[in-house]
Structures are given as structure tokens and as C-alpha cells.
Specification:
This protein is an alpha+beta fold. Helices cover 36% and strands 20% of the residues. It has a domain of 251 residues: Beta-lactamase (3-Layer(aba) Sandwich). Strands 2, 3, 4, 5, 8, 15 and 16 form a seven-stranded mixed β-sheet that branches. It has a five-stranded antiparallel β-sheet with strand order 10-9-19-18-17, with helices on both faces.
């Protein structure tokens, strides 16, 4: 009896101690668990911040959509729910049935349902069916600047472009809806709902200008169709501070339907990996993500390096017989018969390869590589677009006479278009290396300034004297050389043409390009056009320079850049 009594006493004492522990020392923890069991939580998506251009035009905003969910324990007529949801949502009955009959606290049927459909489903008043309103990203102008803006996923997070770079600012904080249920999981009728309201994201203001982007895109599409090119890239930026006004890479894609290919490829015959590869290619921003041989546009950089080193002057005379023999290689000029005797100024007007081979030899491999580094060509620009490609350049030890010759006129290495535009900007703006960018500032939904972005600069890339000389030389290319088709009456335009073969050589595929700026004496805007694999005539001065001219004719007055009284008429130069 004593043993039994002691055993019972110890058991009661242990039980009492456990009750004290649960009801006093751990009561808060178990109250929270009980609350969780009796609460059902549904999220409310926060409105993502808008993307606003330089003129105040909204390029990315939100649309109200609905998320349709079901609570299994509250469904009274499963067959009716399945019938209504499959019909209204356009989903297979088997798919809806599987989700409706699933034993879970809450099961999502479909997200991003348009509000009209959500309202129709709500009107049925089906027990156990929840229709919650949230937001979906919406791009008012479809494909405009698609490869710059990027898009978001179903979770409202950025995937590519500015949407992912500035995601931390654009994303808001999701809210929640809390409802109380009984032990069976059925909502308590009179308990009401507790809402934690979402916090909307902040707005991103960018340097992109809707009007300039639209016109540049139209110009790119026009030349894409006329020349049956693979794709066309156009970049318009401020060479003084790096602000990008337009960045076009056509064909673009529909931002509101980013997972549909913009080609006629039969996706039904593709594997999921093959389709994903095509999507990744469609989303690429060729201006930033891809490299290419710049060709003769790079001669502006070679000339700047030669002037900086002091190995060439404007009056130096050269001879072009139509080729140069470097070691065992015969490197031809684009003019078969050669240019004969010409000055350095005429050589850059004519885009003469043999002369630039001579200039490259004067600079020397070691110093050329040093200028590559000083100009910033061996590092990325730091543009606020993800996936910027790096320069593909020979190692210094591997630069022999032939490599030095080809580098001097822009071949045997690769850079990105944004790298070329940035470096040329630095050469013509007085010698300041700028950071190209789109992001300008972050503001709240009410317009309050929260953050202004600052970008790195590096001074003395070239001297002021070299910069002034380069502006003079590149203006001569347009007024008297191969870039004459970029001439606009009343404006001082500078620029450089290029025509280069793509790798591998001998495939008869070319890249035609032109980079230009205005006004030539005080550059305020720089534009570059690159045409990949044009059919028919492929000279950059013939097909790319007119594109930049047309863009300048429209945007220079728009930017408030006035005509000057006297500008010399262009003299026809050799095409390259």
C-alpha cells in the first residue's frame, strides 16, 4: 500500500509540476500555437513601385488581379465548385478537381486572374472559395525597352533588367488576411477578419526617355526590315554624365507576355531546355550582354592613344598602297587601290587600315595595352543592367606584330557596345570616364525623394587637348569623310563608321555600325547604331550612319539643341 501510495503521489506531483510549467512558464508559447491552429492566413500582394521615365511617363505599373483559392473544410458542394472554377478559369476539370479535393488548410487554384473573372466567381458565393485581390505587373507600352526594363515573375520579384537590379526598392511588403476557425477548420461566422495592410513599393525614376526610345525603336525596326538583318541595336546617351536616353535591341519582346517567343519557331517540337535557351536568347540585351569586334569605330580610340603618347600629329603624312604586309600577313585596306599619300586627318576621314597599322606600331604593344587599361576598356562599365559582358582581349605577352596591327583598326578582340560608347564619350567629353546608367532616383508613391543615385567618374582619361583634337577629327569624318551620310544641315556632327566581318571569316556576314555625337564642339548627345548581318549593301557609312542622322534630326530639337548658323556642307568620302 505504501509503494502504491508513493507512486500515485509522485505521479500527481509530476503532473502538477507539468501543469504549472505549461500554464505559467510556457503559456505564451502554447497560446501562440493555439492561435495559429485557429487562424488561417492569406497573403495580400503589395503593389510594386512604378518605373517612370525622364518625362514623367510611367513605363511599368500594376494591374489589379485576383488569386482564387479553396478551403477544403468549408466546401459544401464540391462538384459545383469544380464546375464553376474549371469553366471560369479555363482550366482542365481534372486539374481543378485534384486541387479542390486536396486536404489542406488552403489550396491555391490560380493566381493572376483578371479582376472581371474574379468578380464573376465571387458573385456565385460558393462556400469555401476565396477570391483575393492583389497586383500583377503591367507594362503600358508592350515591347518598348523590353530588354532594359525587364519583367517580374508570379511572385512579383524582378527577373531581368531594371526590375531585378532595383528590386529591393520596387518591392513592397505583402500584407495578410487572418480569419479564425473552429477545431474542424471551418471559419467562425462572427469572428471577422484581421487585416495587415500591404506596404507598396517605391517608384524608380530613370533617364530613359519614352519619346527618344520610341523613335529609336521605330528607326531600328525600319532598318531591320529593309536590310533583313539578324538584329539591330541603337544606343542614345548623354556623353557628359552617362545618362542613357534610349537602348534598343530589336526584335524586342512583349513584356506583358515574356514567356512567348517572338519568332515563328514551333515550340511544340522543342524540349523544355531548348525553349528556355531560346527565351534566354530573346531576353538578352545585346548592347550590354554581348561582345563584338568594333571594327573601325575603334580607330577613334587608337587615334586618341596615339595623340596622348605624342607619336602622331595632324600634319603627319602616310602612304596607303591598299595593303600592309605584317610578318607573313597581307592586311588590306577597304579601298582596293589604296588611298595613296594622305595626312593623319585624311586617314581618319578615309578610315584607312594601313595608316592605323602604322600608328599602332608607333604606339607599341606595351603602351597600347596600357592605354587600354587607362581608358577603362579592361574593366566593365558598371552599367545598372545585369549580366554585363567583359572585354575579350589578348594578354600582353600574346600581342605580336599581327595582333597589334589588327587591334589598331578594331579587330581580333571584342568589347560590348556599351563599353565602346562609354569610352568614346570619355574621349570627347574632355577626358572624364563616366558610368553609363538608367537609374536616377527613388521616390515614394507620394513623390517624396528617398534616394538619388551617384555614379563613379574618373578624370584625365585623356587630356583636354587630345579631347578637343578628337572632336575636330571626328567632325571631319562627317563633314569630309566616310560618315557624310550622318550630316544634318545646321548641326555640327562628329562620328565614325565601321564595317567588320563576323567570326568565322569568310562567311560573308558583316556588322555595320556608326557612332556619332552632337554638337561636335560641345557633345550633349551620343548615338550608336549597330546592324548585325545586313543583306545587300553592308557598309556602315551607307546604312548605319543614316539611321543615326534620322534619330538626331528628331531628337536634337527635342533636347533643346539648337542649329548653328554656318556648318560646312559635307564632302563625299570613301565608304567603309
Amino acid at each position: 500500500m505504501l509503494v502504491v501510495f508513493l507512486a500515485c503521489f509522485l505521479m500527481m506531483a509530476g503532473l502538477a509540476a507539468r501543469l504549472v510549467q505549461l500554464m505559467i512558464f510556457e503559456s505564451e508559447y502554447y497560446q501562440e500555437l493555439a492561435q495559429d491552429l485557429h487562424e488561417r492566413e492569406r497573403s495580400i500582394k503589395a503593389a510594386r513601385g512604378k518605373i517612370v521615365d525622364a518625362s514623367g511617363t510611367v513605363l511599368a505599373t500594376n494591374r489589379t488581379v485576383c488569386t482564387i483559392s479553396v478551403v477544403h473544410s468549408q466546401i459544401e458542394d464540391a462538384e459545383q465548385v469544380i464546375d464553376v472554377l474549371s469553366r471560369e478559369l479555363g482550366m482542365a476539370e481534372e486539374t481543378v478537381r485534384e486541387r479542390v479535393e486536396k486536404y489542406s488548410s488552403i489550396e491555391r487554384i490560380k493566381a493572376n486572374v483578371d479582376k472581371e473573372t474574379g468578380d464573376r466567381i465571387r458573385a456565385y458565393e460558393l462556400a469555401g472559395v476565396k477570391v483575393d485581390e492583389d497586383f500583377k505587373r503591367y507594362y503600358p507600352y508592350g515591347s518598348l525597352a523590353s530588354k532594359v526594363l525587364g519583367f517580374t515573375g508570379s511572385d512579383n520579384q524582378g527577373i531581368i533588367g531594371l526590375e531585378v537590379v532595383y528590386d529591393e526598392f520596387l518591392q513592397g511588403i505583402d500584407g495578410t488576411i487572418l480569419t479564425e476557425t473552429d477545431a474542424r477548420g471551418v471559419e467562425i461566422a462572427d469572428a471577422g477578419e484581421e487585416r495587415v495592410e500591404p506596404v507598396p513599393g517605391n517608384d524608380l525614376y530613370v533617364s530613359l526617355d519614352y519619346n527618344i526610345q520610341l523613335y529609336a525603336q521605330q528607326a531600328a525596326l525600319k532598318v531591320l526590315e529593309e536590310k533583313q538583318a539578324s538584329y539591330v541595336s541603337i544606343l542614345v546617351m548623354n556623353p557628359q554624365n552617362g545618362e542613357i536616353y534610349a537602348c534598343v535591341n530589336v526584335p524586342e519582346f512583349d513584356l506583358n507576355d515574356p514567356f512567348t517567343l517572338n519568332t515563328d519557331v514551333d515550340t511544340g517540337s522543342l524540349t523544355s531546355q531548348e525553349k528556355q535557351d531560346l527565351l534566354n536568347q530573346m531576353w538578352r540585351n545585346q548592347t550590354v550582354n554581348d561582345t563584338y569586334e568594333p571594327g573601325s569605330t575603334f580607330k577613334a580610340i587608337t587615334a586618341a592613344a596615339a595623340l596622348e603618347k605624342g607619336v602622331v600629329s595632324l600634319t603627319d603624312t602616310f602612304s596607303c598602297p591598299g595593303f600592309r604586309v605584317v610578318e607573313d600577313r597581307k592586311i588590306r585596306c577597304h579601298k582596293a587601290g589604296g588611298h595613296g599619300s594622305e595626312t593623319f586627318v585624311q586617314a581618319i576621314e578615309n578610315s584607312c587600315n594601313p595608316v592605323f597599322i602604322d600608328i599602332g606600331q608607333r604606339i607599341g604593344a606595351e603602351d597600347f595595352y596600357k592605354y587600354f587599361q587607362e581608358f577603362g576598356l579592361t574593366t566593365k562599365t558598371g552599367i545598372d543592367i545585369p549580366g554585363e559582358a567583359a572585354t575579350i582581349m589578348h594578354k600582353l605577352d600574346n600581342i605580336g606584330a599581327v595582333e597589334l596591327a589588327t587591334i589598331s583598326f578594331g579587330q581580333s578582340f571584342q568589347i560590348t557596345p556599351i563599353q565602346l560608347a562609354t569610352t568614346v564619350s570619355s574621349i570627347i567629353n574632355g577626358g572624364v570616364r563616366i558610368t553609363p546608367h538608367f537609374g536616377v532616383e527613388i521616390r515614394s508613391g507620394t513623390g517624396e525623394l528617398l534616394k538619388r543615385f551617384r555614379y563613379d567618374t574618373k578624370k584625365d582619361i585623356v587630356s583636354a587637348e587630345t579631347s578637343e583634337t578628337m572632336r575636330f577629327l571626328l567632325e571631319k569624318v562627317v563633314s569630309e569623310g566616310g560618315g557624310n551620310k550622318a550630316y544634318i544641315e545646321g548641326y555640327r556632327i562628329g562620328g565614325k563608321t565601321a564595317t567588320s566581318q563576323t567570326l568565322p571569316r569568310g562567311t560573308n556576314k558583316y556588322i555595320s555600325s556608326f557612332i556619332g555625337f552632337a554638337p561636335a564642339d560641345d557633345p550633349q548627345v551620343l548615338a550608336m547604331c549597330i546592324i548585325h548581318n545586313p543583306q545587300g549593301v553592308y557598309y556602315g557609312g551607307t546604312i548605319a550612319a543614316p539611321v543615326v542622322r534620322d534619330i538626331f534630326e528628331n531628337i536634337l530639337p527635342y533636347l533643346g539643341i539648337e542649329k548653328t548658323e554656318t556648318v560646312p556642307e559635307p564632302v563625299s568620302g570613301s565608304e567603309e
